[in-house]
User: Fold this.
Amino acid sequence: MKKIKYAMIIGALFVLVTGSLSHFLYGWTGHNTVIGLFTPVNESIWEHMKLLFFPMLLYSLIIIFKFNGEYPCLISSLCFGILTGTLLIPALFYAYTTVWGKNVFLLDIGTFILSILAAFLLSYRFTLLCRLKPYTFLLCIPVGILFVCFLCFTYHPPAVKIFEIPCCLPPL
Assistant:
């Protein structure tokens, strides 16, 4: 139990650091098209969801490879965590901007951190409780769909609010 607890803590730190760095990676690479598929290419909420999704997906694959034999519910729990954390980003952003009336940089950072913590805390709890195992396939499907959507909508976003750059934010 201690091993998976520490793995989740390390995972949260990994996602925090890699997600934060990946915010700038597209610009640092001179707007590399391939890098843009996995990192934000603009300041839209949709693109910021990548900050949690891809680092957590990468880390999840690593710890699934390492611990899946010991923790049979790890895959379903991590998929649930990825989905929860990723979807919390727009949910929290739109909730606080509706109340506040504008976006605030520190609240954006807080949203990211809170989403990471929720993702890994839920992943940890459900790994131990093992209640999601029967739904592993059903949880993997939306993770896969979200993966494909990130790739497709990066350079061809639909005309929907989540793909728009919030007011008063400069492009990356």
